[in-house]
Structures are given as C-alpha cells and as structure tokens.
Amino acid sequence: PMANGESLYGAIKEGKEYAADWTHPFGTRLRVCNKSNGRCTIVHISDRGPSKKLKRVIDLSKKSFSKIADTKQGIIQVTVENV
Question: For residue 81, what are the CA distances in angstroms to 3, 11, 29?
C-alpha cells in the first residue's frame, strides 16, 4: 500500500495519476509542468517521498511522467502548483 492506504497496484490498474510528495497533504491536486517543453499534468498526492536525501521535489507515477516527458529521461526540471 501507499502511505495514504491505497493500493499501489490498484492505482496503476485504474490508471490514476498520482505522485509522492512530503510537503502536501494526501489528496492534494497539483499541476506539474515540465520546464523544458511546457507540458503539464495534474496529479493527486497519495504517497510520501521521494527520498529527502535525493533533494527531489516530487516523484510522479510513470503514467503521469509520460504525459510531460519521455520516461527514458528519468529526472527533469518541473514547476509544481496547487490546483
């Protein structure tokens, strides 16, 4: 299960767009935009992470990431705002 109690596999199977973040409450909807191409996606926070020692802002699900960048990139610069 994810930190909010939802099943990770259930969220993937249902095609949910979710993300992990330490600073927003569970259920918060965020617009995440790729700085290099301007593409955006809206996700809901359902998990905690990424690892604080990695100094990353947010960790997107594969489906969410694929909407704003090629998944082969792995790490990109984004903006994050509340919806």
Answer: 21, 22, 9
**32 vs 36: CA distance, rounded Å:** 12
Mean pLDDT (the chain) is 92
Q: Are 53 and 66 in contact (CB under 8 A)?
A: no
Segments of the chain scoring below 50 in pLDDT = none
Q: What pLDDT is attached to residue 1?
A: 87
54 in Cβ contact with 22 (< 8 Å): no
Give the pLDDT of residue 37.
Answer: 97
Helices assigned H by DSSP within the chain: 8-13, 62-68
- Beta 18-20 vs 40-47: how paired, if at all? parallel
Whether the CA torsion 51, 54, 58, 62 is positive or negative: it is negative
